[in-house]
Amino acid sequence: MCFFKSEYAKNLLITAGIFLFLEIYIYQAIRTLTDNFWIRTGYWAVSLIIYAVFAYEITHYQRTDRSMVRAQIMISLFLIFILPKIFIVLFLLIDDIVRIGGYLIGFAKPSENFFPERRKFLSLVGLGMSGVLSALFIDGITFGKYRHKVRRVKVKFPNLPESFKGYKIIQISDVHSGSFSDPGKLQHAVELINEQNPDLVLFTGDMVNNVADEFKPFIPLFSQIKAKDGKFAVLETTIMPIM
Predict the structure, then answer these.
(1) Contact at 8 Å (CB) between 167 and 135?
(2) CA–CA separation, 226 vs 70, rounded Å?
(3) pLDDT band at 217; cut points 50, 70, 90
(4) Which residues have CB under 8 Å from 102's CB, separation 6+?
(5) 3-state percent breakdown (helix, strand, coil) of the chain, nearest 5
(6) What own/partner pairs with CB < 8 Å and gap ≥ 24 does 183-192 have?
């Protein structure tokens, strides 16, 4: 147990060191673009708060916890605030690699090989790209999971029996019911399924995030789905009929 805790603490410190290095590196982009004290201070304040919440959720997360709220908070923070910063690092690295390469090859002296405008442009592009990516993640997490669409695929088999011609199968996957707090938010999806007048409905996996109990509040809603020849679902590797 002591060995496990020691390894855990070591890994946590290494991870914290990596993120600290990245933040200091990314901060150079902020410094390049603005001299405003409040913007610079605000960046560090927001970043520290986000990392503090992220660290707290990680250290208190239990895999046996049936609630996915903590996991969703960690994933959302990572996708919205941490992952997009990699774009800033990539664009700053472009400038640094070019400059360092110039120094090593000897094409130019350090004083001649620094272009502030290029650095400013790459910092602006990196921040812009990270902002766009963050906005896309926010949209997907907040609104995207409710944009339900029907994708129609016509399958042809040369030896298909006549009785199966025109047979309609609805395939649903990745419901991840534990990610929704209100089953009613998926009412539109159920209505969309029924509008297709399917012969058979197949749930092909990932109905839940972690445990089967997550789906219990959604049973009345998904029971409204109608199919002439039945409905079948796969949670993991078990196939079972549902009401």
Answers:
(1) no
(2) 34
(3) confident
(4) 108, 113
(5) 65, 5, 30
(6) 183/217, 183/218, 183/220, 183/221, 184/221, 185/146, 186/218, 186/221, 187/221, 188/146, 188/148, 189/148, 190/221, 190/222, 190/224, 190/225, 192/148, 192/150
Q: What is the CA radius of gyration of the chain?
A: 26
Q: How many CB atoms lie within 10 A of CB 26?
A: 21
Which class for 141: exposed (0-12), middle (13-18), buried (19 or more C-beta within 10 A)? middle
E-strand ranges in the chain read 169-172, 200-203, 231-234, 239-241
CA distances to 28, 35, 85, 100 from 121, rounded to whole Å, are 13, 16, 16, 18
Contact between residue 242 and residue 224 where contact means Cβ atoms under 8 Å apart? no
pLDDT for residue 79 is more than 60: yes
Residue 100 tokens read as: 């360092």
Structure-model confidence comparison of residues 35 and 61, the more confident one = 35
Please name the amino acid found at residue 50. Answer: I
Q: What is the C-alpha separation between 26 and 82, in angstroms, rounded?
A: 11
Please count the helices (runs of H) and the strands (runs of E) in the chain. Answer: 7, 4
- Give me the pLDDT at residue 47, please: 86
How far is 137 from 134, CA to CA, in rounded Å? Answer: 5
Contact 131/33 with Cβ under 8 angstroms?
no
Give me the amino acid identity at 198.
P
